[in-house]
Design goal:
By secondary structure, the chain is mainly alpha-helical. It has 6 helices and 2 strands. It has a two-stranded antiparallel sheet with strand order 1-2. A hairpin with a 2-residue loop joins strand 1 and strand 2. Helix 2 packs across helix 5 and helix 3 packs across helix 4. It is globular, with a radius of gyration of 19 Å. It starts with 13 loop residues before the first helix and ends with a helix. About 10% of the residues are buried.
């Protein structure tokens, strides 16, 4: 697969035609890298769930679903293999002894750190010949794009 863009049509302009194509290529390449085992075997959903638990501490399924902008059943389904693998555990909610929260286990902390290190090393390799200011600009623009997507999705869910 090449990374040259398709021709713009009468419904798109060249920048947006190129962007949508480059995003599709990016998604495919990320999946290929993940499946190769080069950055650890955590899929995107598992990585984001573990990251959320590490950054914000134990949480119930509803709070995680809200934070990740997914349905509670999705979090339950995503958490099940993480619990089975010992990366996430169930702990009692101190505010309600009948309720449980999901928490990162020590094994989960180590696994997340390993995957982050692998992903960081891959980013370093891929951007090694980019000037530092371009690396920072790319990161800032990607973060801005992700924020725009988050806002768009939230707006559509609220409508």
């Amino acid at each position: 697969m090449t990374t040259t863009s398709p021709q713009a049509t009468d419904r798109t302009d060249p920048v947006h035609a190129q962007l949508q194509y480059q995003l599709a290529v990016f998604a495919r390449r990320m999946e290929q890298v993940r499946n190769s085992g080069a950055v650890g075997a955590l899929d995107r959903a598992a990585y984001l769930l573990l990251d959320r638990l590490e950054r914000h501490g134990p949480a119930n399924v509803k709070a995680l679903a809200d934070a990740l902008a997914v349905d509670s059943s999705t979090v339950t389904r995503q958490a099940a293999p993480l619990v089975a693998a010992g990366l996430v555990g169930r702990v009692q909610d101190p505010a309600d002894r009948r309720a449980v929260r999901l928490a990162l286990t020590p094994l989960g902390v180590r696994r997340l750190a390993d995957v982050r290190a692998g992903r960081s090393e891959l980013a370093r390799r891929l951007l090694a010949d980019w000037p530092p200011e371009e690396q920072r600009a790319f990161c800032a623009l990607l973060a801005r794009f992700n924020h725009s997507m988050e806002s768009y999705t939230a707006g559509r869910q609220g409508a």
